[in-house]
Specification:
The structure holds 2 protein chains of 2 kinds. By secondary structure, chain A is mainly α. Chain A has a single domain, classed as ABC transporter involved in vitamin B12 uptake, BtuC (Orthogonal Bundle), CATH 1.10.3470. Helix content of chain A is 71%, strand content 3%. In chain A, the strands form 2 sheets. Chain A has a two-stranded antiparallel ribbon with strand order 1-2. In chain A, strands 3-4 form a two-stranded antiparallel sheet. In chain A, α1 (8-39) packs across α9, α2 (46-64) packs across α3 (68-89) and α2 (46-64) packs across α8. By secondary structure, chain B is mainly α. Chain B has a single domain (34-348), classed as ABC transporter involved in vitamin B12 uptake, BtuC, CATH 1.10.3470. The radius of gyration of chain B is 20 Å and the shape is globular. The termini of chain B are far apart. The chains are: A mainly alpha, B mainly alpha.
Chain lengths: 294, 349
């Protein structure tokens, strides 16, 4: 069977790959949106934290034989703690300043992190094995689905939905949303806002690291994996607007699929298609698809 | 999320390009009000730097190094026109610099153009690309503006990676310097040097003229209070767009000069890290001051040159660390801090 002259197998394979990439876009842009909401900082270091997550998993396996499932928990914890340290040592000095300073500081941080890892491990990638439980593929009749890719999509969707639930449907989330609107007022009501800000950044960092661990078996773990991705994620954020959590998830997945389709029909443009979509959206709808701000 | 509300709540003194709000001497007409004091000193500094630039090859500074420095200084000044005097942070200036470098290189090497035409070609391409970027990016403000320019510059990077005329991963090598206007042999370093110096000084004065002109005053108003400028009836977007195109064109010029001086254009010219570097140069020297970007680029280029063979990979880490320190503790930059010091001293006396 063929679709537009492309074998169905290849088509569905790219669709799946697009969904996987989209899942990463969704997780990362979600973290960016949450951090931006409360801290007013566009976290350029998000890509570096994603890279750290993948490296943490790889180092744990390589040095101490910690398996994938433990790494899935431990790496985000480690990187989340690092996030807390970053917030306490650097970011807390920037509150109240122009948000551009936050972008520049986190840009500097990501240069440092990337530079250190490039010095230590070189620019080439390390490969991380797919865990035994998820290796192999399932034949669905119309396509062969690699188990690990299916797992990545399901797991990241679950994480995104969990985050959405936490923010939109729980008391903690209500504090968080209130803090986004007016931090001073929330503090006056007795909520420990600095603590909340610190933990939010930590959680955002942990989310990025989780995406990194999920990505480790699919792509080469390399010091540069984060910076290449973060620029695409920025475009995703511009397209979707940072105002809505579900909006950023939908935008992320959608763009992943569009990118996958481009790889099928016009591979030369696959690396720039997200940026092209961004330009089109900005021309037609300057505030972004789900954006509220001017 | 009420980020717009938050943005307006920010104290104007904490704006990114605040140096000129608190520190008048370097800008506009205020300097003339106090002929003695800082502005006299400033004149001495200017004359000193001019003499240094003109005498550099004579006193034994390696001309190619100083030429490279001047190219980056021009790039940083062009960038600062946008960030320092219009308040727009572009994270995509490498696109203009790099495309200028490639186009000038291609025109001179493959199409056989004369060097002056090649340089003009690079500047025109920079400005044209700036027009495209500007038309899209000025639809959003602040932090989004930075992200959009970064994303569009990445698009240009991928284009340069895949296009035939750029030579892909290898870049353009061995671009001949040729003869300027068919007369001046640029292959001689000393001739090339004075051509670069003349272009740099001309552009520096041009930027000064732009900023101190009525047009420049409107740009500063937009930087300080955009809604106010709109309510006064200025078509803010047009001003921003023109500033963006001017800045991009000058960045393209800087890129094409660099190709002519060094003889090559590579992917690193158009990579996002180059956009980061030019931000660092402005920030380190002093955003919103005339001399800041020159001093800043001097420090960064000299640092890279001396460190490259000693610490290798660590250069990135050091650049990142300088970024962090600048943002945390040194937001005014070298020139801004000097200004602030002079101000304090004048206030006391």
């Amino acid at each position: 069977m063929e679709i537009f002259g492309i074998p169905l197998q290849a088509f569905l394979g790219q669709l799946m790959l697009g969904l996987v990439n989209g899942a990463f876009y969704a997780m990362l842009s979600l973290g960016l949106a949450v951090i931006f909401g409360l801290l007013d900082i566009v976290n350029f270091a998000h890509g570096a934290l994603y890279m750290l997550g993948a490296f943490a998993a790889w180092i744990m396996l390589d040095q101490w034989g910690v398996n994938y499932w433990f790494a899935l928990v431990l790496a985000p914890l480690v990187v989340g703690t690092l996030g807390v340290v970053i917030e306490r040592t650097f970011l807390k000095h920037l509150y109240g300043l122009d948000p551009l300073y936050g972008l520049l500081l986190t840009f500097g941080l990501s240069l440092i992190l990337e530079g250190v890892f490039r010095y230590q491990y070189g620019a080439s990638g390390q490969s991380y094995p797919v865990p035994d439980l998820l290796s192999g593929a399932t034949n669905l009749g119309f396509m062969v689905l690699p188990n690990y890719r299916a797992w990545v999509v399901v797991a990241s969707l679950a994480v995104c939905l969990g985050t959405w639930f936490l923010i939109e449907r729980t008391r903690l989330g209500a504090y968080l949303r209130a803090g986004t609107e007016n931090a001073k007022l929330v503090q006056a009501f007795g909520v420990n806002v600095p603590m909340m800000v610190m933990l939010t950044y930590g959680a955002g960092a942990a989310l990025a690291a989780l995406a990194g661990v999920l990505a480790a078996p699919i792509i080469q773990v390399s010091p540069l994996m984060g910076s290449n991705l973060i620029i695409v994620v920025f475009a995703v954020v511009v397209i979707g607007g940072m105002g809505s959590i579900l909006g950023s998830v939908v935008t992320g997945l959608g763009l992943g699929v569009i990118e996958g389709m481009t790889r099928v029909f016009y591979p030369e443009a696959s690396s720039v298609i997200v940026f092209v979509v961004m330009v089109i959206v900005l021309v037609l709808r300057p505030a972004g698809l789900f954006g509220k701000e001017a | 999320m009420s980020n717009a509300a938050k943005a307006t709540a920010i104290d104007p003194m904490t704006k990114l390009a605040d140096s000129t709000t608190s520190v008048p001497p370097d800008t506009a007409g205020e300097a003339f009000a106090s002929a003695a004091g800082p502005s006299a000193l400033l004149r001495v500094v200017y004359v000193g730097l001019l003499v240094l630039v003109l005498a550099a090859p004579v006193i034994g500074l390696y001309p190619v190094f100083v030429m490279k420095l001047l190219c980056f200084a021009l790039f940083a000044c062009a960038f600062n026109l946008l960030l320092g005097f219009t308040g727009l942070l572009s994270f995509g200036h490498a696109a203009f610099f790099g495309m200028g470098a490639y186009v000038a290189g291609w025109c001179i090497k493959s199409a056989g153009w004369s060097p002056e035409l090649g340089i003009v070609g690079g500047a025109v391409i920079g400005a044209g690309l700036g027009l495209l970027f500007g038309l899209v990016a000025i639809r959003r403000q602040g932090i989004y503006f930075a992200m959009i320019t970064l994303a569009m510059a990445q698009m240009v990077f991928f284009f340069c990676l895949q296009a035939k005329f750029t030579g892909g991963e290898d870049g353009l090598q061995g671009v001949p310097r040729g003869k300027l206007l068919g007369l001046l042999p640029l292959e001689t370093d000393i001739v090339m040097y004075y051509v670069v110096a003349a272009i740099f000084i001309g552009c520096f004065l041009g930027i000064r003229r732009i900023v101190t002109s009525p047009f420049g005053q409107v740009l500063k108003m937009i930087r300080e209070n955009e809604p106010r400028a709109i309510s006064l009836g200025y078509e803010v977007d047009r001003y921003k767009l023109l500033a963006f195109v001017l800045s991009a064109g000058l960045a393209g010029l800087a890129g094409s000069l660099k190709t002519l001086v060094m003889g090559f254009a590579t992917l690193s010219d158009v990579h996002w890290s180059m956009s980061g570097e030019v931000i660092l140069m402005s920030l380190l020297g002093g955003v919103g001051t005339f001399l800041g970007p020159v001093i800043g680029s001097g420090i960064v280029v000299a640092l890279q040159d001396t460190l490259a063979d000693k610490v290798g990979e660590w250069v990135t880490v050091i650049i990142g660390a300088i970024f962090v320190v600048c943002v945390l503790a040194f937001r005014k930059g070298v020139v801004g801090e000097v200004h602030a010091y002079m101000e304090r001293r004048r206030a006391r006396s």
